[in-house]
Amino acid sequence: MKEVRYLKFVFDLDGTVCFRGQPICEKILQSLSELQSVGIEVIFASARPIRDMLPVIDEAFHHYTMIGGNGSLIAKDGKVIKSHSFSINEINEINNLIDQYNSTYLIDGEWDYAYTGPDNHSILKNLDPANLANNVSLEFLNSVVKVLILTSDNMDELAGKLLKLDVYVNKHSNEDVLDISPGGINKWSALKSLGIKENTYIAFGNDANDITMFENALHTIMIGYHDQLALLAKENISLDGDYEQKIATRISKLSEKYRLLQI
Questions:
Q1: How much is the pLDDT for 260?
Q2: pTM (2 decimals)?
Q3: Are the C-beta atoms of residues 77 and 194 closer than 8 Å to each other?
Q4: Residue 68 and residue 88: Cα distance in Å, rounded?
Q5: Which of 76, 79, 102, 136 could serve as a FRET partner for 63 with CA atoms 20 to 30 Å apart?
């Protein structure tokens, strides 16, 4: 007998289902539970590493599949099961550019991290809020899966130099930081590694790091507005009024529409 497989729903976190660094609200959590109850798998896919995803996702959802670090980490049951790291040569090249441009950074290993940024940087409100990891020197990270350049003498020139390396560089629209992942690693590559095919999932996102995920989705919902993402979005939910309720309602409506779709 052929296995019945249903559509999946994939959610970015920050700016998509959680806001201002706060955990996902109860009304959205309820709509996510409804998806699971009708056989639709829910996957979280974030720029955050897994350790920083867990505190904003209710513990009842920690067994869900999570993609962290823009695709460099995959976790199930709250534990990392796959990771993609930079090569030693790539880290050396990035580190040389960091020194050349007097940059500060947040560099993530699979769990621990190295932070040299300002004491008042906005990234700190989302950095290991549950104290699950250790802040260590870069040389003590066994592998590096993600690099955030926080400050630099010349961010634009540094970005140009990084783009010449075999790495993926993303500049978040709402923050003046450079987000660097290993070459070929993004949210779509992580979904593919999980055996997920094109046009078999619904994607919710809000920023440039969701582009690859949107390009290969059956249906796409942009939260807020982003110039590049808007070109790929089938619909948009604006961040005005009770937008969390609007998001929860839309998830429930889409659940009704797609729950009987087999893939």
A1: 65
A2: 0.91
A3: no
A4: 21
A5: 136
